[in-house]
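USER: Please consider what follows.
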Amino acid sequence: MRQNKYKNRLTRWLIEIAIFVVAIFVLFIGIGYFWIKPVGSVLSHKDWHSALTQKRLNYVAIGDSLTEGVGDQTDQGGFVPLLANTLDDHYGISVVSQNFGVSGNTSTQIYKRMTTQKKIQSAIKKADLITITVGGNDVMKVIRTELANLSEKSFVKPAKTYQKQIEAIFDDIRQYNSEAPVYVLGIYNPFYLNFPEITQMQTIIDDWNRATQESVAKQKKMYFVPINDLLYRGIAGTEGITSSGEGTQTIANNALFEEDHFHPNNIGYQIMSDAVAEAYKEHVNEK
């Protein structure tokens, strides 16, 4: 009798422990779900499952001064940390970024770094997200070398060379990583502020962006992010050049860095970050 009583107590005790363990397990699963995938998130099932296992997103930024963050007075790195923080906040997952931006780099120089630096290649292999800024210095190189006789025709041959170079950049990325989404930011036209006499510059920028977009469209999970219209005239569409007395001109664009009227300022980089974040939101559910 006493033995049966002991067995009954032991059985109840084991059942209570089992119920407690199951309850704790369910609680942690629920907390993990809502932490990783907040209400309103657009993470796909695949992304959610990946987040459960790794709880981080590896973000690699490649490019020129726009990636490096020249003009960012906080010295944080331009749009790169802003984008990382936005994705972190929205999707509830730790975003770890690596910035491989070098001021002044042309497409040729960016490609050379990618094909010779093991650190960049290793980062690309592990990347879950990649952004690229390229092209502004290629345009600037044409302006500097052809300034004395600069015309719209001066950009035709360099544009073709540039398109071949960025296609090589895209192919190199896909050699190391075939799945990570890649966001290629277009170039914008700050040149009208420093070279107002070159009235065809906007047409030239449009042509280069169109060629880049065509090259991007040939790639899988690669997206073009236009930023020219967002930065060209500044915030609220403010024109960048105003004339004043005695033929003098006042240069002002509240999205650009005041010291050079070329690179974005903090506000400009926030605009760029928002543009990429919006593009990411649109494409994140694609298979």
Observations:
- The longest strand covers residues 56-63.
- The domain at 55-283 is CATH 3.40.50.1110 (Rossmann fold).
- Confidence is low (pLDDT under 50) at residues 24-45.
